[in-house]
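Re-run with default settings, no changes from the original entry. Doing this only to confirm the output is reproducible before filing.
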Amino acid sequence: MAISAVRIDERVADVEVTDAELIVRLHDGRRLAAPLDWFPRLKAASQVERAHWEPAAAGLGIHWPDLDEDVSVAGLLRVAASRAA
């Protein structure tokens, strides 16, 4: 019997900020989304400011230098887990 192993890689691969959501794609293929209302600085920012992000904490977080805003993958995962329960 074959066993398939899932590779967990919680580092940020890509970030998209729409007018409604913060969408984070992880290296292992997961997609996390949260309402933009949870992030007032991002919500008030321009599209250019929203698009200017960089990985933080060895890829386990996101930093928007123009906004001084930080979001952790762990925090997004906790929210996703609590909503799934």
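The chain has three helices and six strands. Residues 5 and 28 are 12 Å apart (CA to CA).
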